[in-house]
Amino acid sequence: xxxxPFKKIKFVSLLFIYIFIPLxxxxxxxxxxxxxxxxxxxxxxxxxxxxxxALFKTNEYQKNAAKNKKxxxxxxxxxxxxxxxxxxNSNFKRKDAKSIIYYIKKYC
Length: 108
What we know:
mainly alpha
């Protein structure tokens, strides 16, 4: 198929680039997701009216984690959802939320 060694190297290099370059924006996306969750939760603890938005967004991320079989991430997001529900009922657990968000960053 490819007889010239330089053509083989060029082919393999291009294949490598096409496979791994598209993954870079995905990694950046996960980082942005984490920052968005952190911001929404912080806003929720400052103003209870914004907790509903944080809860819906966290639920979306939780469903995506389940779909992608990232069960350790999904578990942390479910814990955060429970914490947000408690915040909506004026049962604030900010310390718990910080801990959960730390583990979301680690596992998601």
